[in-house]
Fold these 3 entries.
Entry 1:
Amino acid sequence: MDITVNILLTIATAATPLLIAAIGELVVERSGVLNLGVEGMMIMGAVGGFGAGYLTGSPWIGLLAAIIVGALFSLLFAVMTLSLATNQVATGLSLTLLGLGLSGMIGTSFVGQPGVRLPNLEIPGLSSIPVVGKLIFGQDPVFYISIALTAAVMWFLFKTRTGLTLRSIGDSHTSAHALGIKVIRYRYLAVMFGGACAGLAGGHLSLVYTPQWVENMSAGRGWIALALVVFASWRPWRVLAGAYIFGAVWIGQLHAQAFGIPVPSQFLSSLPYLATIVVLVLISRNKRLTMMNTPASLGQPFVPDR
């Protein structure tokens, strides 16, 4: 039972950064913008969060710094694609390459340094309940933030006027502009929200998941988060389910190696990425499901009439 609880705890920890990054990207894509720079923003949030936490000794300041770094890094993407109307795919890929290189340079002095870990919440009486106590009442604070964030985004997109406006921009930015909606403003805010979420996900990696700085520690999670948005057909609750499925695959291959299962470790390490490819292939076969919730203006540049 203890082994099962520990595995479930590690799955929740592994799924949290995927969920946060994917929820942020979902809002971005619902506005009609395709930002492939999630990996770059996440790794910049990781180095920014670790650096601030290490220098101040406070993991909370580190977490705040990760959010700010992610939002500022996304602002570079927003300026390029929304104000200068550059290609969103090329700009997003460039952002990822820039983030990976820049984080490696910034984090050189942090390699091997002891990190500060964000402590788990312990609720007296509830945390000691067998099985359920640790799983529900003994997690790190970012876990609860991720669940609350998912619920908030779901409510915002489908229960508020502003969320409806954002979705209308994603479906037809030309029509939204004709109605007097500030398309560029909404998209700027959406992109920065996505960047803040990616930064928070990166901060979780360096302050909770493995409280240290390792170059390229995001390890492709940003790409998995992008795939999760498509897997979920742009629905927040499906992102939540998908994040935990991918988190289980991620942790499952680690435990499989620890248990000495006679399968090459290289194959086990590739399982999360193979699962991502398989899921995308299966989804692409159902065109009706793919097109049903896809924002019609996704990836299309918008230049307002002057």
Note: The radius of gyration is 19 Å.
Entry 2:
Amino acid sequence: MIERHEHGPVRELRLSSPPVNALNMALVQRLDAELVAAPEQGVRALVLSGQPGLFSAGLDVREVTTAAAEPLRRFIDGFFRLQERLARSPIPVVAAITGHCPAGGTVLALYCDHRVMARGAFRIGLNEVQVGLYPGLTIYRAFERLVGASKAAWLLPRGAMLDPEGALAAGLVDELVGPEQVVPRAVELGTQLVQLPPKAYARTRSLVRSDLLRLFDEPAEDVSAVFGADWLSGEARERLAALLGR
């Protein structure tokens, strides 16, 4: 489900949940636990990676569409706890975006410190609206933080997906490398970060991420209320069912 690969002071957490690294409750809980464990075990930086050609396809469509109201609520609550865990990580997290990264995959990347993406025929973006889902204010603000208000207002309501060059130009990712270099480059970045003077780096990192943390310090939406039974509307179920039928 998640493979650990040690690179000195940097630990790579590689999503390994075939066929598409879909984020189901088990994977969300496991990743959350790994984020807690890493700093406790002396890890100084993390790389979050996927498989060649695919980072994560987002939330597990089958689990989402078949869940009853209460399990769905618990799942969504767990997914938002994972986002907060990433945002509050005491050690830097570099996203190694190894390929396609729609919806929930992009959400994970939003909360990382840096994002390295593979060049190629891949797509990344928050395409929730295309399948009838509402992304919510917290995800919107995290997205806006990277791409700016104007681009967020243009991209999010359309559920637009970007190619790697478009994502770089928009600010959604920080750099592009060849597919085989994504993980090595992310590990290199993590290694560079842990070599900085630790107190100065930690204080400065807290400064530049303070706006991200405020999204959780002062929540403007009740996640359970917004993402309850009404979140998975009839139109969403139809779109998601069509995806499963492909």
Note: Residues 148 and 171 are 8 Å apart (CA to CA).
Entry 3:
Amino acid sequence: MRRILIVEDDLDILEMLCAWLGEAGYAVVTAEDGLQALDAFAASPFDLVLLDLMLPKLDGFGVCEWIRRRSGVPVIMLTALDDEADQLRGYDLRIDDYVTKPFSMPVLLRKIAAILRRCDGQEAARLLHYRDLVLDLDGYTATREGRDLELTNREFECLRELIQHQGRVMTYQMLLNRIWNYDYLGDERVIYSHIKNLRHKLGADYIQTVRGVGYRVEKV
């Protein structure tokens, strides 16, 4: 099920968006100010963000800029303002569409569907999100809270395998087979070393040890 983050401080509009999107089959998470939006986005991945411009605590531009440092997730900006300068600023931040209030919900639903069709598979194939981590699967780079992590290729691959199989225990042998290939003749100590270094570089204990079996990350 597609997940959409709705960031809107007008409770009537928020309720309407939740009702229409829920009826259309989307899973929704809501935030009523900019800081709540950052927390929600950092906590789990989304397929699209509906972002109001005029928000308490941190405006939509600030939220969008923060998101764009971490993700290419589609963003539709909602606003009562139709000033050209605001629209241009939004597009400079690489939003996908700009919708002025009042708006038609059937039209908005079709815009959402069109953007998701256009982006389908592209973001998932390129970026992998987990909490505040973003892994670029093509570039073999990783960031945490927007900060680059200096991972070796093997450390990156260990983290990728654990996140792609989150909630599942990856045994030592599974990691050896997937990362070092089936003909690797080494032992489990190479895994211990890479996980130790990876934990240090992450600066957070996302990786759980299942004693005598392997490792896992908690499913989000």
Note: The domain at 128-217 is CATH 1.10.10.10 (Arc Repressor Mutant, subunit A).
